[in-house]
Amino acid sequence: MPRSCLVVGGSRGIGRAVAEELRAAGDRVAVTYRNGSPPDGLFAVRCDVTDTAEVDAAFRAVEAEQGAVEVLVVNAGIVQDQLLAAMPEHRFTEVLDTNLTGAYRVVKRAVRGMLRRRGGRIVLVSSVVALQGSAGQANYAASKAGLIGFGRSLARELGPRNITVNIVAPGLTETDMTARLAPELLAEYLRQVPLGRMAQPAEVARAVGFLASPGAGYVTGAVVPVDGGSSMGH
Ligand SMILES: NC(=O)c1ccc[n+]([C@@H]2O[C@H](COP(=O)([O-])OP(=O)(O)OC[C@H]3O[C@@H](n4cnc5c(N)ncnc54)[C@H](OP(=O)(O)O)[C@@H]3O)[C@@H](O)[C@H]2O)c1
User: Fold this and answer.
1) How many angstroms is it from 160 CA to the middle of ligand 1?
2) 231 belongs to a structural domain
3) Which helix (H) or strand (E) holds 125?
4) Residue 105 maps to a domain
5) Are 7 and 73 in contact (CB under 8 A)?
6) Is 140 a catalytic residue?
């Protein structure tokens, strides 16, 4: 039976690749998008994760189209890089509000249906910088490390209800987010990557697809790095 999947932040980059991966596995997949036009070929609803009412409306639209969400992938994320000494407070709180509180809003809404159905899969997209830190990314790293504590707590809370919660921590991945990096900075980052290259979005999507698959039924609270060896697993 195809499952009802929702990828939050599925319009492009890693989220888009995750949506394609889940669809290729035979599931029904909806995505959210925020700006611009919806992606071709996928059921898409507009949603800004900083707005609880928009999150609720998006879930209602997805539920009407394909039933209660059984697989949730929380992928929406932004960066606003700056050294701490120069970082205004709003750049810290905006990143936290999207990347971490946004996850709280979305997961809380999804869990309602999962508890009723006594089962579900949740995958949170964190980052290797949550594990390693990154100069100029204190806001982003704090949000992504927060996702790990959030996800592991939920793995404990929701495990007895047959809901798994896992975290994927990608390293440098070739998307719009990294296209903005200065070439010298990118080269410096790549020197830290044992595999010596960026990930393709589809490579990250494979890990998410596994965690969402029946084969990962006994995996919960895990942090899965897809980072070319940068973090050596932790
Ligand atoms: N690329 C990397 O190297 C890398 C490494 C580690 C982790 N990650 C994480 O992977 C995830 C995807 O990154 P990406 O590289 O694919 O980035 P991307 O191409 O910039 O895509 C970001 C996605 O997040 C959505 N989004 C941003 N703010 C949102 C908001 N307030 N409400 C709803 N959706 C929002 C965007 O929607 P719109 O298109 O509508 O703006 C888009 O779908 C992010 O969480 C990122 O932090 C990326």
Assistant:
1) 31
2) no
3) strand 120-125
4) yes
5) yes
6) yes
